[in-house]
Amino acid sequence: MRVAIIGGAGTVGQAVALGLIRAETVTDIVLVDVHDDPGALCLRLRKNAKVSQRRLDARDQQALVAALAGTCLLVNCAGPFCDTVVPVARAAVALGADSLDVCDDFAATALLLESDLDAAAQAAGVSLITGMGADPGTNNLLALWYAKKLDTVQSVSLAWAVDCGDLAGAALAHAATMLAGEVPQFCDGRLHYLEGGAGEETVTFADPIGTVTVRYVGHPQPLTLPRRLPGLQNLTVKGVILPDWADRMLMAQKSNGLLRREPLALAASLLRERASAMPPGPGVSGLKVAVSGTRQGRAVTYAAEMVGAMGLGTGLPAAIAALLLLEGSVAAKGLLAPEDAIDPQIFVARLLACGAAIRQTRSETVTLTADGGSV
């Protein structure tokens, strides 16, 4: 089976490719990018006979369709996602191929949800999974995994911390975009749009990240996850760019109006220039999920945490989902969020089998009665 990875020369695209090259079902991996320099690829990909490169623009739907005939799966790792998710998904439908993306931009997800792609994909009998990276992606499925252990789900808290050293190109611009303007959060049982960068909260990640301040960011989960969690009251997504100087710089840029769409490239450029002269961050990124609700009448919170390199943390979940699609393990057709398409128990088992470390905790609140008993 042939797989095309859009944005395949980038860090995340290469991580997806590395997760696929050993699979016997994958016979060809086409790395599609605006750059086709073999020197940009890691040695394992350059030397693997399954891997080839193709120079194409992810925004050009017709060119993708013409060049990728016979492809079974498109994996979109190319940002800015507002420019690429719709043409790549439409190309997949035209090819009769499944697709997935690692889109973490709520505005791009909204474009997909507001389009006719769900009906088009169902008519074509294909699955289009959006947001299948780390956050969204792994966090969505961990949240659903824990929700299935509860009788009722009241709140989901998603948080992440990303080292700016892990960011480049469109990802760096996204670091600024996600704080700009109002961003979706699910509060008091309904969708709200709150100011990006507000809602400060202190969160402790495993070393070497430690304790950081996270804030509301513009990720897609508030648009999709509540549909799968009846009775949910609150779902927040908060994040921070590390180290501290990068966080302070982004918040200063927001205060000065540099995070509006027009000067956004300037804000990203300033952050990139400063990064070359400032002390490095922790060298890793992290994500956390906490799901609270009730089980057998008791208040219970499940929590999980993962820390590692962002490229692998985003590329590995996408590779797992890609293999599940190729194996025929995703029955649902249409436009799908990760929680609509993938069994969380199977996903977590695959993630652990690949060597991922998930630190989990469970806490329970017992209400004491007047006679010394409990409920």
UniProtKB/TrEMBL annotation:
All copies of domain Saccharopine dehydrogenase-like C-terminal, residue ranges: 211-347
Domain Saccharopine dehydrogenase NADP binding residues, every copy: 3-124
Domain of life: Bacteria
Pfam families in UniProt: Sacchrp_dh_C, Sacchrp_dh_NADP
Cited InterPro entries: NAD(P)-bd_dom_sf, Sacchrp_dh-like_C, Sacchrp_dh_NADP-bd
Name by which UniProt lists this protein: Saccharopine dehydrogenase-like oxidoreductase
Lineage: Bacteria, Pseudomonadati, Thermodesulfobacteriota, Desulfovibrionia, Desulfovibrionales
